[in-house]
Write a structure and sequence with these properties.
There is one protein chain. This protein is mainly alpha-helical. The protein has a domain at 59-168. Helices cover 75% and strands 6% of the residues. The strands form two sheets. The protein has a two-stranded antiparallel ribbon. The chain has a two-stranded antiparallel sheet with strand order 3-4. The model is unreliable at 41-49 (pLDDT under 50). Residues 28-58 are annotated as: Disordered.
Length: 173
């Protein structure tokens, strides 16, 4: 918008107090506004002003300066809001990351605890299995002994019975 040849058209109009109203939100510098306020003459700018025009110019300049100050203050407030919002977002992100990290660590600890518990149960199961096998072998051995004894008793009993039967047979013949 400066000294280069801009192809942009800016339209403006003056209100009843000869104040310039900018159309479509275009901002103009103080010097541009001053140039637009001056009545144009065919030979260039007019060099003289009336006393009331100077007062109006001063009021206009003050008003424009106030508006610019308000605009700067508004922009500064918006920038500060963005910075504060950015800080708030950063704190929230850090907080959620910390929360997520703690949750992950808790889950890892719980998983490790479950893994160790499963290992303990597996060892206990193996121990019970060994114990059961030991008992199984012991009882099989005891059963084999009892069967052997029973066979011996049967053999002895059968022999005694045969002997007694032979003796009774020989006596009563």
């Amino acid at each position: 918008m400066g000294g280069g040849g801009s192809t942009r058209r800016v339209t403006f109009e003056a209100d009843e107090n000869e104040n310039i109203t900018v159309v479509k939100g275009v901002r103009l510098s103080d010097s541009v506004i001053d140039r637009m306020k001056e009545p144009s003459s065919p030979g260039g700018r007019s060099q003289h002003r009336s006393a009331s025009g100077a007062v109006d110019d001063e009021q206009l300049k003050k008003r424009i300066a106030e508006e610019l100050a308000l605009e700067r203050a508004r922009r500064d407030a918006e920038a500060q809001k963005r910075r504060l919002f950015g800080r708030l977002l950063e704190r929230e992100r850090i907080s959620s990351n910390e929360h997520l990290t703690r949750a992950i660590l808790r889950e890892r600890a719980a998983t490790e605890e479950e893994r160790q518990k499963a290992q303990r149960f597996a060892k206990q199961l193996e121990e019970k299995d060994r114990e059961l096998k030991k008992h199984d072998a012991y009882y099989k051995e005891q059963l084999a002994r009892l069967e052997e004894r029973s066979a011996q008793f049967y053999k002895v009993t059968t022999e005694q019975y045969q002997k007694a039967a032979d003796e009774v047979s020989s006596r009563f013949k």
